[in-house]
User: Which sequence fits this backbone?
């Protein structure tokens, strides 16, 4: 059973990301273009479940399945697309998850979505604080029910995502006119 725990921001999350990034760079080498720290642990000051979300961007998503064995060797479970077409997903830590790896091929619209959400919350501390507070309340209300926790934050996350996409698209269009 997965315990739902939301913690205050920790500087250790950045260190954990950097450590895992090096492992992933070693595994994926030439296939790899970039690696991003995403999710709530990437937003300084925000309360979050202490799970490091990592998003590698690769040249060809279809080549990633051949790396499953290497990922298993460093403690990951390969989950395939896991509900999102064009993604390869890995999780580490079983019920006590420590890391999620979401791999996308360059050009996937999912990359923009994830980075817009992260960057919007980094730039809008009040929104990040409200979202973190909601997650904390839900974790206290549903400490042993991950699905109730996810359902409880769904509408807020969807609303934030829409704001983030508008914000990111506006920033992108403003850059083109400068």
Assistant:
């Amino acid at each position: 059973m997965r315990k739902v725990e939301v913690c205050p921001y920790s500087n250790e999350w950045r260190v954990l990301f950097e450590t895992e990034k090096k492992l992933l760079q070693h595994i994926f080498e030439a296939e790899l273009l970039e690696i991003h720290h995403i999710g709530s642990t990437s937003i300084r000051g925000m309360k979050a479940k202490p799970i490091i979300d990592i998003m590698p961007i690769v040249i060809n998503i279809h080549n990633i399945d051949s790396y499953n064995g290497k990922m298993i060797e460093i403690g990951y479970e390969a989950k395939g697309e896991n509900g999102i077409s064009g993604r390869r997903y890995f999780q580490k830590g079983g019920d006590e998850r420590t890391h999620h790896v979401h791999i996308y091929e360059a050009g996937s619209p999912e990359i923009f979505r994830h980075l817009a959400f992260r960057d919007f919350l980094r730039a809008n501390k009040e929104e990040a604080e409200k979202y973190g507070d909601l997650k904390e309340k839900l974790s206290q209300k549903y400490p042993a029910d991950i699905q109730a926790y996810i359902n409880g934050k769904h509408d807020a996350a969807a609303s934030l995502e829409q704001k983030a996409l508008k914000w990111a698209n506006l920033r992108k269009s403003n850059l083109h006119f400068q």
The first strand starts at residue 32 and ends at 38.
